[in-house]
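Researcher: Go.
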Amino acid sequence: LRTSRLREQVRRLHGLVDVDGVLADFPTAFFREVRGVTGRQIDVADVKAWDFARAIGLSAEEESRVHERIMRPGWGRTLAPYPDAAFGVAVLRSLGTVHALTSPWTGHPTWHADREEWLRIHTGIAPHDVTHSRQKHRFAGDYLIDDKPEHVVDWATAHRGGLAILWGQPYNRGDNLFAGAVRASSWEEVASLLRRRFGEVRQ
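Model: Structure:
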């Protein structure tokens, strides 16, 4: 019986991880385009809400022009990875499988291809381990890591046995979490949260 319980405790996890704002520095790229349209220099640290356009007071015309710039073919491949992105994926892979669950950019001519190539180059996540969807709560896993509070809470509500982790960013600090969701700001903290929740994990 003791051996059986140990086997139950030691297992591999199946993780879901967002890309923009977690692995890829979308915010800096977005504000680069804002500067190109408006001339304004925006520091991500000063942005207090996840909806960037509203948070910095872009007009409808300015937002439209920013989106036009983002719609250029290949734009998604220009995003810089966060310095610890590859390390983070390696940490998650040490605990099990990793699947990228990323929101699409509707109407963008190359977004899906750009995203899958970006992930392959910067994190080693293969295209068959990438899903493009805004309905993240429809996908099961042991955990989800995302920078959008709405996604985290919706997923936590739908998957009570899993762990929903809000990846800490300046623009989501003021958001309240429900349904057992938690925050993390480093990959070491993520690993600690997962081990506390799921016990020992087979390497």
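Model: The chain has eight helices and six strands.
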